[in-house]
Design brief:
Length: 81
């Protein structure tokens, strides 16, 4: 499971590496370059799925067949130990 994604602003093309939340989709992102509040493209659950180099963890889990509970357990174990 990848937790880092480089999000690229569709307005000014500034790219920044961000850590994605593991238990939710992030609907808004404020660009550090131009200050625009970016929203996902129609049909995408979050800004990482629309403008990131890696889709969000819930979508990664869906694609790999993992449940949300398995994802949270795996993430918690990697943070603790």
């Amino acid at each position: 499971m990848l937790l880092q994604s480089t999000i690229t602003c569709p307005h000014c093309a500034v790219a920044k590496a961000e850590t994605m939340p593991t238990d939710a989709c992030q609907f808004f992102y404020e660009c550090t370059g131009c200050g625009v509040k970016v929203k996902p493209k129609t049909g995408d659950c979050c800004v990482f799925c629309s403008f990131g180099s890696v889709p969000c963890p819930p979508i990664q889990a869906l694609r790999s067949g993992e449940s949300g509970d398995a994802l949270r357990t795996k993430y918690s174990a990697s943070v603790v130990g």
